[in-house]
Design brief:
Helix 2 packs parallel to helix 3 (about 145-155), helix 2 packs antiparallel against helix 4 (about 165-175) and helix 3 runs antiparallel to helix 4 (about 165-175). This protein has a six-stranded mixed sheet. The chain folds into two domains: about 10-210, inorganic pyrophosphatase (n-terminal core) (Alpha-Beta Complex), CATH 3.90.1640.10; about 215-345, Diaminopimelate Epimerase, Chain A, domain 1. The chain is α/β, with parallel strands linked by helices. The chain is built from 13 helices and eleven strands.
Length: about 350
């Protein structure tokens, strides 16, 4: 497994290389934008916002895609730039440049992995666990979202913000900061949000669409999944683990799409008796998309990285295989090694 990148943002040489790679292209160049499987608000928002910026630069052949099932979560389906999206098998076999968004490792690109091995791949990301793939890496672990990196590159390319680009980047920024509630919400984040809002965005309308609108069936589904939540106070050296799972049968029973499960990690992580929270979402027979969260004492990115995924200290994920109890046992077994220095010493 490749080692994660050292902490630190892009060097000036990295920014210069990315700008040069884009500026070297003619307007008719084939530009392929890609992001990770099961894209979230940051992946889609960063990618589509940047794609709209390329259109403003005069590029006429820009397409965007992602691996796996070609389904955009309903709350994100009205995002500007949606017309750039095509299924992966319709994205074309050749591209003059590939620009990748919000993927911490090549494994998150599925069948699109072959694309990043074409000439000139620029990677925009903010995960500390990023493995350093691609020709040009713009990876800033201190950034609250990949959209922060995307906005910086657009600025360096001389692309002014308009309402469409800004809405994409604002959705990306607000989703990855939990509506500006997470620790990554710095003064710089609010300054960027202010610049985006200044284009004429209506944050209340965006928030209602992205965060506060769910089908009634999703509420019933959430109730079922939360009812089976399990608390393990002794896990993580006594800091506690809380977890639950959602099956494909749950989705079928309530006639819901997988995207409705994403917000479920929030009520789980609120559990006072646990530092670590976990949601397992079934994606296939004996296969689970696993979301991990920490309140700060446990570095869940270490757990995810050890199990084939990645992410941040407080939020990470991986693909688990096996029965639910087997996947949870693997997580539980990795928690002691992921304790912070102080906690690790206290636990002996």
């Amino acid at each position: 497994m490749p080692a994660p990148r050292a902490v630190g943002g892009p060097a000036q040489a990295d920014w210069a290389a990315a700008v040069a790679a884009v500026r070297a292209l003619p307007p008719t160049a084939r530009v392929l934008l890609i992001c990770h499987v099961n894209p979230d608000g940051d992946a889609l928002g960063s990618m589509l916002g940047f794609g709209l910026g390329l259109r403003k630069l005069g590029f006429t052949r820009v397409v965007a895609t992602f691996p796996g099932l070609f389904e955009v979560p309903e709350p994100l389906s009205g995002m500007p730039g949606r017309e750039l999206l095509v299924p992966a098998d319709q994205a074309g076999a050749e591209a003059d440049i590939v620009i990748c968004f919000d993927a911490a490792s090549e494994s998150r690109l599925g069948d699109l992995l072959v694309r990043v091995r074409r000439p000139v791949t620029v990677v925009l990301d903010h995960h500390a666990s990023n493995t350093g793939f691609g020709d040009v890496q713009l990876v800033d672990p201190a950034a609250a979202a990949t959209s922060v990196v995307a906005e910086e590159l657009l600025s360096r390319l001389g692309v002014p913000l308009d309402a469409s680009i800004a809405e994409c980047l604002y959705i990306a920024l607000s989703t990855d900061t939990g509506s500006f509630r997470f620790d990554a919400t710095t003064p710089a984040v609010h300054e960027l949000a202010a610049r985006l809002l200044a284009t004429g965005l209506r944050p209340g309308e965006i928030s209602r669409r992205i965060f506060d609108t769910r089908p009634y069936g999703a509420l019933r589904l959430h109730a079922d999944v939360l009812s089976r939540t399990c608390l393990e106070p002794a896990a993580a050296g006594g800091l506690g683990l809380v977890w639950t799972y959602a099956t494909l049968a749950d989705l079928d029973r309530h006639d819901q799409r997988p995207y409705v499960l994403e917000p479920l990690i929030d009520p789980i992580r609120c559990t006072a008796e646990a530092d670590v929270s976990c949601l397992l979402k079934q994606v296939g027979e004996r296969e689970w998309a696993v979301s991990l969260r920490s309140k700060g004492a446990v570095d869940v990115s270490q757990v995810a990285l050890a199990l084939g995924g990645g992410g941040h200290r407080l939020a990470a994920g991986f693909t688990g295989r096996g029965a639910v109890d087997e996947v949870v046992a693997a997580i539980r077994g990795r928690l002691p090694a992921a304790l912070g220095a102080d906690q690790g010493e206290d636990q002996g």
